[in-house]
Specification:
With 440 residues, the chain is mainly alpha-helical. The protein has helices at residues 2-8, 11-16, 19-41, 44-54, 61-77, 82-89, 94-112, 119-150, 153-184, 189-207, 215-228, 233-243, 245-275, 280-308, 311-335, 339-361, 372-404, 414-439.
């Protein structure tokens, strides 16, 4: 499989890769592609649709909508545990940790299929989703350090992009099939979730075969860094934010910008269901499948741009794709022109293609090798905070607008649009300031 994959790569990319990286890349792709089946069932948009359509009659609308916000935001707010995972795995075998966390993700998905459709089941469904995404947040954090060790900087985004393309297409297909099945049989998720969980367990076992270039040296460096560090991970994170002003600026801008992006999925599920009466399959297509398909198409394009320059220059251009997507959704909601939801969904996938690459790799333009996991932990933890707050704020604003005047909840998308627009403008300013400082 390694030779087949390498032969499909552009010659210039394959030739630039060290032999060990060319050997390790197919293993990374295979494990992530297999795990993507389980993650397709655990997509925030998919589980949000299950919660909204299956539990709508067993709890109050406000409670169900808040549960929608939590499960849609769970992939993001679970990242608050990132620093904890980074600390636990410091100086240890990251491959074994990633495998164990993949297994925990699959187990949580399996438990979700067994829950009753009542108020308690709604609470437990939300809790299992959070547990699954907490485990996956640990995978993301530790996997970033593995990718940094195995793949050199000048091709890292390209390789990550290739992994993301395959991974995203499998998630998209899984989510679409699940949406179609629920349109025919509303309890199809009870069969699909366990099957996807079993595939995830297989992926967890397969990941144990992954190796890390210079893994022993990396563990020693991390142990030395931990020995020399004053205080724990949290104290070290605060020192980084205090001393690295460019990373601090990047994180502050990402907080506002990302809050808008993380707010939109839960609001779309509610709007499509309550205001526009879209069916289950259509909701899954708009919130999950179509964005993932265009994500796969646009990822190689954004990867070349990220490989070519600093993350701030990259974000100053890439951020405007999110402004376009959220603008289309906002117009669609306010005007009632439903076709714009479909166009906006495609635009959102193109934006997420660049956003995921920047999110996974952007911290590397600020961090040294031995602090890479810590920098990623800071980024992921702050993503978790806004992932918890942003969807809840969005749903609460929606509920307030609807209580004041039924139908006025359609205006709620102006809030994430404004946050995203402000963040995009700030990235342009920061990139210009950095170029000016380098020139001086």
């Amino acid at each position: 499989m390694a030779s087949a994959y390498n032969s499909a790569m552009p010659a210039n990319t394959a030739n630039r890769l060290p032999f060990v990286a060319r050997t390790l890349m197919p293993r990374e792709i295979n494990a992530n592609a297999t795990m993507a089946v389980a993650l397709g069932a655990l997509e925030g948009g998919v589980v949000a649709v299950v919660v909204k359509t299956q539990f709508d009659d067993v709890a109050s609308p406000a409670m169900v909508n808040l549960a929608v916000a939590l499960v849609a935001g769970a992939p993001a707010f679970a990242n608050m545990a990132s620093l904890w995972f980074a600390g636990l795995s410091e100086g240890k075998d990251k491959t074994a940790w990633v495998s164990a966390l993949m297994l925990l993700t699959a187990i949580a998905l399996l438990l979700m299929a067994l829950l009753p459709v009542n108020a308690l089941g709604l609470v437990l469904m939300t809790a299992c989703m959070v547990m699954a995404r907490l485990a996956w947040a640990g995978v993301i954090t530790l996997r970033a350090a593995i990718w940094r060790a195995n793949f050199p900087r000048h091709v890292r985004a390209t390789i990550t992009g290739r992994i993301t393309v395959i991974y995203s297409l499998i998630i998209a297909v899984t989510a679409a099939l699940l949406g179609m099945a629920m349109a025919v049989w509303q309890d199809a998720w009870r069969l699909a979730f366990p099957l996807a969980a079993l595939v995830g367990m297989f992926a967890a076992r397969a990941y144990l075969r992954t190796r890390i270039r210079g893994g022993g040296r990396l563990r020693r460096h991390e142990q030395q860094e931990r020995h020399n560090r004053q205080g724990g991970q949290f104290a070290a994170s605060l020192r980084i934010l205090a001393t690295d002003r460019w990373y601090r600026r990047y994180m502050l801008t990402m907080f506002a910008f990302g809050s808008g992006n993380l707010m939109v999925i839960s609001l779309l599920v509610i709007l499509l269901n309550e205001q526009f009466a879209f069916g289950r399959f259509e909701q899954v297509l708009i919130t999950t499948t179509l964005p993932l398909i265009t994500l796969a198409i646009f990822t190689p394009i954004w990867a070349r741009r990220l490989d070519a320059g600093h993350i701030l220059d990259y974000r100053s251009r890439q951020a405007w794709s999110f402004v376009l997507a959220l603008g289309l959704f906002t117009i669609a909601a306010i005007s009632g022109w439903a076709v714009l939801f479909w166009i906006g969904s495609l635009a959102l996938g193109a934006a997420f293609a660049g956003g995921k690459l920047g999110w996974n790799l952007g911290h590397n333009d600020f961090a040294s090798d031995d602090q890479s996991t810590l920098y990623m932990g800071i980024h992921v933890t702050l993503t978790g905070i806004r992932g918890l707050l942003a969807p809840l704020v969005g749903v609460l604003v929606y509920q307030h607008l609807e209580a004041a005047q039924p139908g006025s909840g359609r205006w709620v998308l102006l809030l994430p649009f404004a946050l995203t627009l402000g963040g995009a403008i700030t990235f342009v300013v920061l990139a210009a300031l950095r170029r000016r400082e380098i020139a001086a």
